[in-house]
Amino acid sequence: MSELDQMELRVRHATLEIEDEDIGHAIDALIATGADNLCIQRFKKKKLALKDEIEKLHDLITPDIIA
Which of 7, 13, 39, 52 sits CB 3.0–4.6 Å from 57 for a disulfide? Predict the structure, then answer.
């Protein structure tokens, strides 16, 4: 994998982490205001999907170290 590819993956990873944090804050705000449970569940589902994608990118970025 080239350095440019690595850099693009790291940028995408950072972007997704920021989005994940933003969705977490949105979920907290929705819970605090007593919003519809279906809406909260949709946000939580999106947050889980983001977490999965973040983990996949993390695995691509981090080299395998054999002890």
Answer: 13
Asked whether 54 and 13 are in contact (CB, 8 A), the reply is yes
Listed in sequence order, the DSSP H helices in the chain are 3-33, 37-61
Using CA atoms, how far apart are residues 31 and 29, in angstroms rounded to an integer? Answer: 5
- pLDDT 10s digits, 8-60: 999 999 999 999 999 999 999 999 999 999 999 999 999 999 999 999 999 99
